[in-house]
Write a structure and sequence with these properties.
Length: 103
């Protein structure tokens, strides 16, 4: 499965390696565990500050995954688009996702 698949832009796709996929999935599963931990903290009526610290850690972990994906997208997809003369569309798409990501 490739990362640009949801846009049906086969010409833009640079498929992730199995190692890249495994690394991302591993990180997301770790984050999923952290979220479950926060749910348990709420159920156990834990101190607000402790919960907020964990939420901050989850947010940072998600941001790191997002930044890694963004970096890979620039290094592979955007770079490929530039080499193939499709830079304008790719850069516009990149800027849109950066705006969305930075909200």
């Amino acid at each position: 499965m490739s990362h640009c698949e949801d846009h049906n832009m086969d010409e833009k796709m640079v498929p992730r390696t199995e190692q890249e996929i495994e690394s991302i999935i591993k990180r997301l599963k770790r984050i999923e565990g952290q979220v479950r931990g926060v749910q348990k903290m709420v159920e156990d009526n834990r101190y607000c500050i402790d919960i907020l610290v964990q939420i901050s850690a989850i947010t940072a972990a998600l941001n790191k995954v997002g930044l890694n994906l963004l970096e890979r997208h620039v290094s592979h997809c955007v770079s490929k688009a530039i080499r193939e003369g499709n830079s304008e569309t790719s850069i516009r798409e990149l800027m849109d996702v950066i705006k969305q990501f930075s909200k």
